[in-house]
Amino acid sequence: MASLPNIGRIGLIGDPVAHSLSPAFQQAAFDVCGIPIRYELLHTPSGELDERMRQLRGGGFSGANVTVPHKEFFFDAVDERSAVAERAGAVNTIICDSGRLYGENTDVFGFAESLRAKDFPFDTSLAIILGAGGAARGVVVALLESDIKRVIVANRTPSRAERLASDLDDPRISICGINESVAIASEACLLINATSIGWNDDQLPIDPIIFSSVDASTLAYDLTYRKTNFLQQAEQHGLQTMDGLAMLVHQGARSFELWTAQPAPVQIMLDAAVTARDSRG
Ligand code: ATR
What is the pLDDT of residue 3? Predict the structure, then answer.
């Protein structure tokens, strides 16, 4: 009989974590690959981060995912980081190796991969990103790595967009106020809501006039995985839309491959994520 892979504990570090879809699709992947572990919810309030670090270094773990609000903490805390994590300024995946911690950012990969399936023409496209927080930064890094032609970061607080542009230091990035982006919307192929609005309420991050200002072929992308007001309005204006579920699964699939050194069963993970989301209504 083939021996089972020897993989230690793996789970999701964050606060809160109970709402996460990661256990559903990561467990589906471990089960179908015959890896006998349980993907754990590692609820970690800020005061318990040092203890969590000790556990990760202690030898029983193969790795972890990291979610809000600890991606910056682990960016600083790991022993080594990938070049992509460096650029994104955040770590969402940890690989444990003999007491040392390696930090990666698979959100960047997940975002790019979600668009690759759509055969998105990065090198001729202008993308408008609403928001300039951690999520927006990951998206901008993914777009730059995918050879996007031009990126406009539109944020409510201009100084935050300025900081993002200055940190990433790439001539393809420009910034503007959130509603100023309406004026150049007709040139955009991609309009991304990377603000935190959609997670909690049905406000719009921008004047809805943007939906009639963009070209009909524009893809409206919301990083959340619910049907937000942003996506509904985009759909009503005849735009293509995409939510963040595929990005979530692709980031998780990449993490799975880093922990297990085997290909992730991506379709099984996608199906499990859709089922888990739908079962929550
Ligand atoms: P995340 O890690 O999800 O990116 P974050 O770093 O707190 O979270 O960033 C939240 C983003 O959503 C910011 O760009 C924020 O804009 P400000 O920099 O002006 O705060 C944006 N955001 C949150 N609430 C918003 C609102 N009501 N209207 C417009 N933008 C909003």
Answer: 53
Q: pLDDT tens digits, residue range 176-215?
A: 999 999 999 999 999 999 999 988 778 999 999 999 999 9
Claim to verify: residue 169 and residue 56 sit in the same structural domain: no
Q: Is residue 4 classed as helix, strand or coil in its secondary structure?
A: coil
**Whose alpha carbon is nearest atom 25 of ligand 1?**
197
Indicate the top mutation candidate among 196, 224, 228, 248 to test ligand 1's pocket, ranked by most ligand atoms within 8 A of CB: 196
Q: 155 CA distance to ligand 1 centroid (A)? A: 8
Ligand 1 within 6 A of CB of 195: yes
Alpha helices in 117-218 (DSSP H): 134-145, 158-168, 197-200, 210-213
Tens of pLDDT, residues 24-47: 999 999 999 999 999 999 999 999
pLDDT band at 5 (very low <50, low <70, confident <90, very high): low
152 lies in the same domain as 141: yes
CA 280 to CA 56: how far, in whole Å? 31
Task: Find, among 115, 138, 107, the residue nearest to 221 by Cα.
Answer: 115
Q: Name the residue range of residue 55's domain.
A: 8-104+246-279
Q: Quick check: is 139 in a domain?
A: yes
CATH code of 144's domain: 3.40.50.720
Q: Please report whether residue 1 resides in a domain.
A: no
Q: Using a 6 Å cutoff on CB, does residue 140 contact ligand 1?
A: no
Cβ of residue 159 lying under 6 Å from some atom of ligand 1 = no
Tokens standing for residue 39: 């993907």
Distance (Å) from CA 105 to ligand 1 centroid? 20
